[in-house]
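Translate sequence into structure tokens.
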Amino acid sequence: MTLDVFEIRKCDSCGLRYPIPITRGNSPNTRCPACMGTTRLILSRKLITESKHRLPAASHQKHKYSVLLDNIRSAWNVGSILRSADGFGYVHAYMCGITPTPNNEAVKKTSLGAENSVSWAYHKDAVDLVKKLKSQNWRIIALEEDEHSIHLMEMQKQGSEINALLIVGNETTGVDPHLLDLCDAIYHIPMHGEKKSFNVAIAFGIAAYALRD
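Result follows.
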């Protein structure tokens, strides 16, 4: 399926203003999706399929970044993390424990194809995996509110030749304490409202951006 343009339409009956992506060779249904009333065309634009601000591919960057999903329950969160990982140039995702993989249709639905650009692997035991990565000189970073964690904005960048692994944990119990013991650094995102934490996919996006050069 190829999308060429999109239209903005407005309903003459209920006033709903909404976009319609136009697929090549197909005529769109121009009835209002809210009330099925008649709509009129407001504007038509060509879809932008390539970012004008694309950075160098991950394979050409100085550092390699990977993410470890430690017992994430929600397939929707996993898919969202994969999509963000692609956007931030992360080269690999480790799914550990009960974390669903891209073989799950719900993961694919939210990753929107990112599982094809971010390589991934499944591991039953995240602790064994991280011990191996540490032996290969990976810098291990966890996102968790812990007595040893520090403000995310105080994150220190790694050296030019060091690869980094960012760990995010279970939505309820957080990162496995034994993983935290293996970390070179633990960071938390300060909260300004009543909730004690962000959704794990949102938190990953914030931390992934902060970690980038």
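Note: The CA atoms of residues 79 and 147 lie 30 Å apart.
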